[in-house]
Structures are given as C-alpha cells and as structure tokens.
Amino acid sequence: MSVSPNNQSTDQSIHFSTSQHINFSTTQLINYTLHLADNALILGHGNSEWTGHGPVLEQDIAISNIALDLIGQSRYLYQYAADLINQSNNPFPPVSGRPVTEDDLAYLRDVLEFKNCILVEQPNGDWAQTILRQFFFSAYQYFFYEQLKQSSDERLSAIAEKSLKETTYHLRWSGDWVIRLGDGTEDSHSRMLKAIDELWMFTGELFEIAPYDEAALQNGIGVNVKELGVLWKQKVTAVFEEATLPVPQTTTFQKGGKTGIHSEHLGFILAEMQFLQRAYPNSQW
Amino acid sequence: MSVHELETLFQDKVDKEIKIEPKDWMPEKYRKTLIRQISQHAHSEIVGMLPEGNWITRAPSLKRKAALLAKVQDEAGHGLYLYSAAETLGISREEMLEQLHNGTAKYSSIFNYPTLAWADIGAIGWLVDGAAIMNQVPLCRTSFGPYARAMVRVCKEESFHQRQGFEILLTLSKGNEAQQRMAQDAINRWWWPSVMMFGPKDDESPNTLQSMKWKIKRFTNDELRQKFIDVCAEQVKFLGLMLPDADLKWNEERGHYDFGKINWDEFWQVVNGNGPCNKQRLDARRKAHDEGEWVRQAAVAYAEKKKMKATMVAA
Fold first, then answer.
1. Average pLDDT, stretch A15-37?
2. Is A191 on the interface with B (CB under 8 A)?
3. Which of A24, A97, B162, B174 registers the highest number of CB atoms within 10 A of its CB?
4. In whole angstroms, what is the distance from residue B191 CA to residue B124 CA?
C-alpha cells in the first residue's frame, strides 16, 4: 500500500472530524472563543508596531497601552479556549502528549485557522488609518462586550466585564482622534477620507453571523452581532458628524476572515509573529 | 548679592544635601550640565525603545510579548518624566528633540548596537538595564530636585526590567542547545558595550570632578563600572554561562574582580557616530517625528478651533 502525502492529509482530516471526544457545541464554543481572541491579538499586534514610532510621545504610550490591553484580552480568551480543548481531550493536532496552551493557539495555527475579522489585519498605514481601524473595531467591541457580559458562560462573561472597561477607553480615545483629525487641518481631513476609503469595506464583516456565532447564540452564550450593526452605525455616524466626515453609503462587501478566508496581509503577520516558535519547535521561552 | 556670594550659598546648600529646585538660583554651568545630562538621558530612553521594539512583533510567547511591550512603553514613560524634568530648567521638549535629530545631543551609545536574536532582549534587560541601574540609583539622590524625583520612579521600573531580562536568559540557559548558544552569543555581544556604558575612564572624564562637587554625580565612572562587573561576574554563574573576558578574575587583595582591557577605540567610534546602528536609530527617530508632523498640526488646529468655539459661546 502506498502512502502518498495526499493520503496522509485525508487521514488526518478524517481523524480530526470524527473525533469522538467532543460534542458539536464545545467545538463551536472553542471556535467562538478563538475568533474573539484572534480579533484582539491581531489588532494588538498591529498596534504594537507603533511602539517607539508614534507621532508624539504621549500618543506612542497611548497606542502601546491599547496594544497591551488587546494582547491581554487575547490571552484570557486563548487560555479559556485551551482549557476547553484540554477538557474535551485535546483535538488540537499540532500538540500531543501535553495540554494545549495559549501560546500553541496563537503561534501554531496557520492563516486558514485564524478567525479574526479582516478589518483587524489591515496594515497600520498612517496614523489616520490606524486610528480609524481602532475606532471601527472598538465601537464594535464595546457593544459586543456590553452584551457578552450577559453570557450564560461564566468565563466569557467575566472576560467581557473586565475588557469592557478597557474598550470604553479605547473607544473614547480613538473617537476623539477621529474627530481631531477629521476636523483638524485640510491634510488630516483628507487623510481620514482616504482611511475611510481603505477600511469601510471591511466593516460589514463585524456583523456577519458565522456558524459558531449561530451556535453560541442558540446556547445563550453568544451575542447577536447582526443586531449590533445598528448601534455601531449610530455611534460611527455621531462621531463622523462631529468630525465633519461623511458616512459612506457604499456596501461593505469584504468578508471571510471569520471563517478563515483572509486578506493576504495575515500570512505576513503570522510569519513574523510565529517565527521563533516555528524555527525552534517544542522550546520553552 | 554678588555672583560669588550666590555661588557660595548654592554650594553650601548642595553640601548640606538641600535639593536645588527649578526656581532657585543656580550657576549657569550647573544648569547647562543638567540640561545636557537629563536630555541625554531622556533621549536614551526614547532611542532605547528601538532596538527592543524590534522584537515585540516576534516575541516567542504571549507573556513575553506583553512584558516586552510593557517594558518598551515604560521607557517612553521615563522619557516623558525626564523631558519634563529638563523643561524645568528652561528648555522645551521641541528644542531637545531638535538637538537629538540634528545630532548635537547624544544618547547612550549602547543603543547603537543591533538586536539580532531573541536572547538579546534578555541580555539587554540583564546587562544594559543592570548598568543603567548602577548609574541611576545614585541619581535618586542627585542635587537637582526634579531630576532626583524622576529617577526614583525610573529606578523602580528599571529593576523590574532587569529581573525580567535575567529571567529570559535563565529560561534560555535551561533550554535546548540552540537556546543556550543563543543566550551565550547575546552575552558575548552585549557585555563589552555594557561595560562601556559607564563612560570614559576617570582620568579622561573632564566633567566628573565638577559634577561630583555639585553632587550631580555621586560616584565616578570607574567606581560604578567596577561595581557592575563585580555583580555580573557573580550573577552569570546562575546562568551557567560565561562573560567574554579571559582576564576576569577575583582579586582577593582588592576585593574586586580584575577585568580585561576595554576597547576604547570602539567606544569613541560609536560615540562619534560610527557604531553599527547609529544612522538607523537616528533615521528612525527622525522619520517618526517627521511623519508625525501632520498629526501634531492637526491636534493643534483642532484645539484652536475648539477654543474659538468656546469663546464664541461664552461671548
């Protein structure tokens, strides 16, 4: 019997999908938690590229702080996902013979397994683009956590409660900057317009329901993101109005990240982020 | 009162360990020395963010990533306190940054060395922050009040950073062979530049004597250097690694470690702009500043608009 690489991968995927140890809802809860963790990590990682390069020292500190908050949130979420995986008997192929950790989940999954929205993996661009990306995301995350606090899942509810305080600050900070740049100089205004043009198309995905959203919603665990869209739009409209910026009427068609179909940027982010873990496998750091 | 009388009074205060405050009379040279030293220190914090910042996006675990990010952010905070302390002496942050960008102000040469591997982050924490602490702890008692108070805050955080750095190396030293090699290599590259962080030898350090008299400085460069070497020579044993100095040996008679010859030629080369990353570090600072120009302008423009609206409402 020949063993071609093709056969191997088929075997593996069969093994993965027929695992007897986990039930449907645990898998979806893991995916749901990973999705939230990936959002926070990838955006935090992007923001951290500003550290040491910010436009003014105080804002260098502020954006680094937000990066830290987001990475911190991702850790709570990955730790929870790791616990769920371990309790359900380790269906995480890159790791065997020991419990899965937060780092395995961040560093040993590839692009197609990441579940973050495409918005958060967009490049930093200039300060306007970074600010707008943060504002769009924080406005979403704020309403999201506000509802996730009510989750019947105690861990998620606790994470939401703690994170909401941070997100409230992120939203205020980024909103203030949107206003300042929109209503600042001609140059800053036109940079904001460009940033809107770059990022608006990715905002719709924040409110798309992925299979794990559906499952989490049915179990009283998750948030109905579709409904958040209205609140989000109100917030964005109010801030844009003060910033003298137009709210685009165009469609927000880009999506796929939540189910693993990303933009080309994520591969480069992971290549950099995961380098050491990939180059020196099974090491302690 | 004549200048001479004022100077006597000033020195008297210094001798009695009474802190000099910004509004107090001080000799012009004291003010200038402090501006130079504090701004140089602030610039070192800001430029120092770059070599370590390099590794935030590549840190090998989430815990390390968060810790490194927090550390580099702390350095920005230190820069902020120090710029503020210098501002009390009558120079603006803008002027100090201009001096950094046009090359007239110096910053610690150590940051002109590259961070090539993850272990460098450990070596910087252990050695570079360790050397910085040796320098900075006495500065908590320096004669100028705002500088001393800024240093108290800085030192608390620095010693935390140093432990973190040592712990990174300790983990690597207990790891696999590749990790141990990585740790040793980082120590090899960072040791001598760290030893040089204390500045030229006492007999080639023209400012030391006056600075000691004014109690800006409490120990000489060579005293601090020796103390640093003594401490590191012991600590390295816990790592099971070596300091790259064949002449390093305990001298019973002196009660200190003897050490090998320092390459002063390299020291002056780097001070004078010819280190491996002098150009890259300054370019990165200038780029951040230049590219931030429109942001700062927008913030000012918006603040002015808002002020005008408020005045109109009030009227």
1. 72
2. yes
3. B162
4. 9
Cross-chain Cβ contact A191/B297 below 8 Å: no
Which of A73, A74, A185 would best serve as a mutation to test chain B binding (most B beta carbons within 10 A)? A185
Percentage of chain A exceeding pLDDT 90: 85
- Lookup: tokens for B242: 């070596």
B39: tokens are: 């701004």
Residue B30 in 3-state DSSP? helix
**Residues of chain B contacting A53 with CB distance shorter than 8 Å:** 53, 284, 287-288
Among residues B52, A96, A251, the alpha carbon closest in space to that of A104 is found at A96
Which residues in chain A have their CB less than 8 angstroms from residue B73's CB?
A: 51, 61, 64-65, 68
> How long is chain B?
315
Question: What's the whole-number mean pLDDT along residues B234-254?
Answer: 98
| Residue B164 binned pLDDT confidence (cut-offs 50, 70, 90) | very high
Three-state DSSP string of A153-171:
CHHHHHHHHHHHHHHHHHH
CA distances from A206 to A119, A202, A258, B17, B23 (A): 8, 8, 9, 61, 56
Above 70 in pLDDT, residue A25? yes
Residue B273 has pLDDT above 70, yes or no: yes
Nearest chain B alpha carbon to A69 = B66
CB within 8 Å of B278: residues ≥ 6 apart: B112, B270
Query: One-letter amino acid identity for B290?
Result: D
Query: In the predicted model, is pLDDT for residue A251 greater than 60?
Result: yes
Nearest-CA distance B299 → chain A (Å) = 6
Cα A77 to Cα A159: distance, rounded to the nearest angstrom: 8
Q: Is B76 close to A64, i.e. CB distance below 8 A?
A: yes
Q: Give the mean pLDDT of B127-142.
A: 95
Q: What pLDDT is attached to residue A20?
A: 38
> What average pLDDT is seen over chain B?
96
Taking contacts as CB-CB distances below 8 angstroms, the residues of chain A near B60 are 107, 276-277, 280, 283, 285
Q: What is the pTM of this model?
A: 0.93
Chain B positions in Cβ-Cβ contact with residue A191 (cut-off 8 Å): 294
A180 to chain B: which residues are within 8 Å by CB? 298-299, 302
d(CA B314, CA B156): 46
A to B CB pairs, distance under 8 Å: 139
pLDDT digits (tens, 9 = 90+) for A121-153: 999 999 999 999 999 999 999 999 999 999 999
